[in-house]
Amino acid sequence: MPSPDDLAPLAADMTAWRRDFHRHPELGFEETRTAGIVANLLRQWGITVEQAIGVTGVVGTLSGTRGASGGNRAIGLRADMDALAMPEMTGADYASTTPNTMHACGHDGHTAMLLGAARWLAANRDRFGGTVQFIFQPAEESRGGAARMVKDGLFERFPVDAVYGMHNLPGLPLGTVAVPKGAVLASSDTWEVRFRGAGVHGARPHLGTDAPLAAAHFIAALPMIVAREIDPLQAAVLSVGHMAAGAPNAPNVIPSEVFLCGTARAFTEAVRAHLEARVAEVAHAIATTCRVQADPRYIRRISPTINRAEQAAAALRAARAAVGDLAMDDHPPLTPGEDFSEFLAERPGAYVWLGTGDPAHPEGFHHNPHFDFNDAALAHGAAFWCALVEQELA
């Protein structure tokens, strides 16, 4: 099986690709430059390429030659390409040249690693049979790229028996490949509540109905839903992310309307449904108590990412073959969301973590202006992809 040492000759190229993507980040559904580079490189290596899947997505198809007639199985390997709308503060000489846009989650590294694997596999297609679909996804960062690719017929046009994803994880030892059992990442939903009352002079509150008071009680009640209604062995999050009411130059006015919104996270559909129901019920109950109106809304966005047992076991075998003792047979679930779950709703699969070691900056974790992908992990990630293909398409 391929190891990081086998992929080391490609490390310089993967680093160059990664830093070029980092220097020129693109937001979701705007990855025209990145997608063009990806497509051109894949074609140079003799890989069949289709573009504009899910707006700016790219899929490369490579068939192995091992065996009399190759093989009938197919697997998909996915990397995301988009950046985040935030300024960069790394100080790197390859820092973003696009204002308020940066690769703060490592998708530049994901794209480079999958390109490295594609190049190695294209040069060694006699080591596997069957078909690999290299899926370069746009718009993972809350813009629905995976769903758009599925809607565009991703798995009908590029059939796979299983699909796999990988994400870097700062703080996990460099080169570690961790394969969670079951839940990997949480659902990511948005809730909104608008409280409507009768605005009034702040000195005469008895003449109106107090929407801000209702909003305050609602904010205080949200933790109660998680702390007293969710099994302590489960997990859930309800957080307030935005509040809007009144005007700063009119502090003597009790506003007639308050708008709140935030995020909800869960690892099971049952807990997710409970959060959805209770946000509305608590909002209405508090509104009744405060003699105001409540207009709650719950928007389901991303489902939980849950590994299938069979594919998780396959990923773990490949991890052990590629990185040896750096393979980890489980990892606690994390509460961010990931739209790779859209792929897992269509095909069985698994999602793994790639350790990139301690970040160079104390604040250098995902979605932080100091974040930078550790290039020393590129060969480890690409080796895992190649080992998985050899193993599953043997």
From TrEMBL:
The keyword Hydrolase applies. Residues 189-283 form the Peptidase M20 dimerisation domain. Keywords: Hydrolase. InterPro entries: Amidohydrolase (IPR017439), Bact_exopeptidase_dim_dom (IPR036264), Peptidase_M20 (IPR002933), Peptidase_M20_dimer (IPR011650). The keyword Hydrolase applies. It comes from the Bacteria. PANTHER family: METALLOPEPTIDASE, PUTATIVE (AFU_ORTHOLOGUE AFUA_6G09600)-RELATED, PEPTIDASE M20 FAMILY MEMBER. This is Amidohydrolase. It comes from Roseomonas fluvialis.
